[in-house]
Amino acid sequence: MAVCHWTKQANRKPMDVGLWDRRYSKQGFAYGRDPNEFLLEVADLMPTSGKALSLGEGEGRNATFLTKRGLTCTAVDISKVGLSKARRLAEEQGIKIKTVAADLANFDFGVDSWDLIISIFCHFPADVRWQVHRSAAKSLRPGGIVVVEAFTPEQLKYNTGGPPDLERLVTPKMLQEDFEGLEVLRCEQKERAVVEGTYHTGLSSVVQFVGRKSLSTKEWKLDKVSQYQMRIDQAISDMQDAGGSFISNIFPAPKDPFLSVARHALGHTIQASKETGQCRYCWLLEEDCVCAQMREQAALTCGPVQWALLCHPLEFMRSSSSGKLLASVLGGEFLVFGVQEHEDILDKVLSDSGTRLLLPGDGSRRLKDWLSEDQVIPSESVGTGSGSPILTLLVLDGSWDQVRALERELADRRSAMGQRDPLPRIRLDDAAVESFHSPLIDALKPGAGKGRLSTFEACALFLREAEDCLCVPRGTWKEALKGLDPMVRVLQRQLQLPPPPGEALELEMLIAALRAVACTAPLQDGLRRCSVCGAAFATPLRMRDHLGGRRHCTAVAMQFSSEKGLSSSPIDREEASKIFESYSTVPLSRCRPEPPDVALVKLKNEGLLNREQQSGKRTGRELCQLRFCFGCQRSWCLGITGSYIGSQEGSGRDLF
Question: Which residues form the C2H2-type domain (predicted)?
Answer without folding.
Answer: 530-552
